[in-house]
Amino acid sequence: MNEKLKAVLWILVGVVGTIVLFSLIVAIGCAINGVTFGEQICLWFGKSAGAIEQVADATAKITMP
What we know:
Blueprint: H1 3-33, H2 37-45, H3 49-61
Helix pairs in contact: 1-2
């Protein structure tokens, strides 16, 4: 098998493994807290929503020449 193909496949396996591990952690959090998957993610990462809105507002005010 080609070495480049092996490297791409290992990277793909790593990405899929990371997604599976993250989903498992969120699912455990859902079971502990008694909320849905989406609600759990919002509980963990929803605090940054204010910063995202500020960046979006700031970039909307910038006019391109």
